[in-house]
Amino acid sequence: MEELNYFLFILLVFVCMLIFAYEFRKKDYLFRYPLLASLAILGWAGLQIYGLIYNNEYPEILWKTILFITICTVAIFVGYYSNKKTVKHFNWEIDFKKLIFFNFIIFLVGAYFYHKVSLMAEEATLLFGGQWEGIITVYVFFAKLLSISLGVALVIDLYKKSFLNWFVIIASSYFFLERIILAGRREDTFEFIMFFLLWLWWKKGFIINRILFISLSFIGVVFINLVGVYRSLEVFSENKFSAFSEKLNLAFSINWFSLFKDFLTNPTTEILNATLIIDSSEKYPFFDFGLSIWNMFVHFYIPATFLGRDFKEGLKFNFPDTAYLVYGHTPVVGTTFTGFADAFQSFWWFGFIKFFLIGYIMSRWYKSAINRNNIIAKTVLLQLYPVSLLAITHTTHHFFLSFVKIFIFLIIPLYLCKKRKHNAK
Fold this sequence. Notes:
The chain is mainly alpha-helical. The chain has one domain (2-416). Helix content is 74%, strand content 0%. The protein is built from 21 helices and no strands. The radius of gyration is 22 Å and the shape is globular. The protein starts with a helix and ends in a 9-residue tail after the last helix. The mean pLDDT is 88.
């Protein structure tokens, strides 16, 4: 089986490199989802697969995971190029003065709850570890409005200059940098960088040099896979700016490439989680046919703090933990199952349809955002980039359920800021 695993691993690398090379020729290569997805799969899942093969872990079933990831990678590419249309339902003319005010309110709400989370984070971690529970989860939900406020503010700047809008950009950026530098959050890092790269592309037509991009990609792969080491670097300064400096000094003192070399032969366990879930789903057998997204909806949007844990849990479907039942496997706290696991557990080998749909949807919103006058498409696209990659590393539910948040906190405010006919010039 080792030979088969190596063969399929080489096939996966070849598919990712082929997609990367195809997209890399495009003028807007950096923003094309198949390129970003293939890079994430190669630089994150690929390295863990190599480590599992090297350590000869579950060689008799690992081939299923490698093959399924390869199929899903192709599905993303095919889905992206299957779409030929744009989103036409939200091409509204916006009253920017009203939108700037609404977005400022969104920023204030996000900043307030971010502050509340920062006050409770240490206590919540002591009580619950990495899996926070209680009222802090509600605060975290609303703190994420900072992401929407920054994205909307950057889009507004493409069309209208405003001191208040730039205040939102600078203040929101500070909160992002705090999460990135002090907490080492991968999602926030990618989101923040992508926001400003798209802003530069739309505003100035600027895109970073390809050689620089490749260099930064290697650094990004090291950071993504060793972020746990970075997070373990403790700083003790009460002054935030001193803490930033102290954290960065500690980071620069570490031999990251030596640690990365060790990581290659001792990888984290996300792909192992996926491997055991994929195989046990066949052996048990159990498939949820997509109903697991309802459980995640309840998890994300139904607050147990107000309605009670028993009520919340009663809303969920009771699905078996197949990896535990078959292998006695309990994932390490803080590790993910990957989107490949939930896709397979939903529709067996046909689970690639989830990634086909993600590629298709990303293409449609991207083609819409290219239109200079489509403000809504630009703001939505900014919110989709992070969750489109979380669909690979965490679960596909992050992507599909993000539209609930987008509708409530983005589409509705934008609709309220739509110019009425009697106001239009």
